[in-house]
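Continuing the batch. This is chain 6 of the set; chains 1 through 5 are on the previous pages. Same settings as before, nothing changed between runs. Recording input and output for traceability.
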Amino acid sequence: MNEAVALPRVEAIVVGASAGGVEALLSVLGPLRSGFVLPIIVVLHLPEERRSQLAEVFARRLDMPVHEAIDKQDIAAGTVYFATPGYHLSVEQNRSLSLSLEDRVHYSRPSIDYLFESAADAYGSKLAAVLLTGANHDGARGLAQVKRRGGLTIVQDPQEAQVATMPQAALNIQQPDHVLTLNGIGRLLVELERIAC
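Output for chain 6:
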């Protein structure tokens, strides 16, 4: 962890991942205990033609409530939300979720950039964004927007990532606040929640 960066009080966490993302997310979210107060909103690239079972899989593995995002749903504390295949997931100014069918971004719908940019606009400096393993450049631009709005930016160490393209693309644009292993990211999320309480 980069000790030079003081950890802020955040109100939400957004996470993006693609290839290798299920295993990475289980490593990052697995240590979070029941009662974790921050909402976590996740975009993981999935085939659009199949119904996602991510919420069910993660609900069995995590101590937190896990749901597939629903349009116009208010974001609740201590809940993990997964994007629905085939729909962009964004955060509205009133801290609710929105699903839409705008054009794909980096060939992806849902797009990590789409989530990160909307969440940055809604939460500003009260947002933490995490970019994990993946095989394209989705998320790099959105992470830069989070940083521009004063949010906390975290990237998985490309040397550890199953596919380094996505985290490396973020590093090529801007130096994030933290470049960490999956274990380090999990510990950081625990610390962010401790500060938020």
